[in-house]
């Protein structure tokens, strides 16, 4: 089973977000630098005579702490954007015609009248009409895709599992598209 269309959708979504993250990063960095500068200037003015030797040390300390905080916030924001890209691509994929073509192919290939399929409500109604001889139940935690159970075998083709595995293989590429300096 190929998920090239899902992969392409994820990469397309990543490109759209690349410009957005660049602008957000510049704004956050400017604001943080401005705040750090204001703090440092106020301290230097107050204690200029007494602390001239300590000013450089204080600057480094404040900047380092602020840099670490900024980096933490930027990293969190990047992960939020990555997850948003994957979620958006997944939703777009679920709304595409190829999504149900894949579900139908999986059902036809791996399920029979002895099988039980678990799906979300929307997918269950579509599959039930195409495969009336198969028991298909709604499972609330499935956002997309299906689980096919037959005897002691369970085939998990849920989108959550597929996207989790896909994230592990392409998250670096998506992150490069979103956050590399070449795209800024």
Give a summary of the structure in a few sentences:
It contains five helices and four strands; from the N terminus they run H-H-H-E-H-E-E-E-H. It is of the alpha+beta class.
3D structure, described in words:
The protein is α+β, with helices and mostly antiparallel strands. It is built from five helices and four strands. A four-stranded mixed beta sheet has the order 2-1-3-4. Strand 3 and strand 4 (153-158) form a beta hairpin. The protein is elongated and about 85 Å long.
What is the chain-wise order of helices and strands? Answer: HHHEHEEEH
Q: Into which percentage range does the β-strand content fall?
A: 5-15%
Chain-averaged pLDDT: 85
Give the % helix. over 70%
Evaluate the radius of gyration: 25 Å
Structural class: alpha+beta
Low-confidence stretches: none
Major beta-sheet overview:
4 strands, mixed
Would you spell out the secondary-structure blueprint of this structure?
Layout: H1 4-51, H2 55-94, H3 97-110, E1 116-119, H4 121-130, E2 135-138, E3 145-150, E4 153-158, H5 159-179
Helix pairs in contact: 1-2, 1-5, 2-5, 3-4
């Amino acid at each position: 089973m190929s998920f090239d269309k899902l992969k392409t959708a994820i990469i397309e979504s990543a490109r759209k977000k690349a410009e957005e993250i660049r602008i957000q990063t510049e704004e956050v960095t400017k604001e943080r630098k401005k705040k750090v500068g204001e703090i440092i200037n106020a301290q230097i003015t107050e204690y200029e005579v007494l602390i001239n030797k300590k000013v450089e040390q204080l600057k480094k300390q404040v900047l380092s702490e602020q840099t670490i905080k900024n980096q933490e916030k930027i990293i969190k924001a990047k992960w939020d954007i990555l997850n948003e890209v994957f979620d958006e691509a997944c939703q777009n994929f679920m709304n595409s015609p190829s999504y149900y073509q894949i579900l139908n192919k999986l059902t036809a290939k791996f399920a029979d009248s002895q099988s039980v399929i678990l799906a979300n409500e929307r997918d269950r109604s579509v599959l039930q009409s195409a495969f009336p001889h198969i028991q298909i139940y709604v499972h609330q935690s499935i956002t997309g895709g299906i689980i096919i159970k037959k005897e002691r075998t369970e085939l998990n083709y849920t989108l959550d599992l597929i996207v989790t595995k896909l994230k592990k293989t392409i998250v670096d590429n998506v992150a490069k598209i979103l956050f590399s300096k070449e795209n800024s």
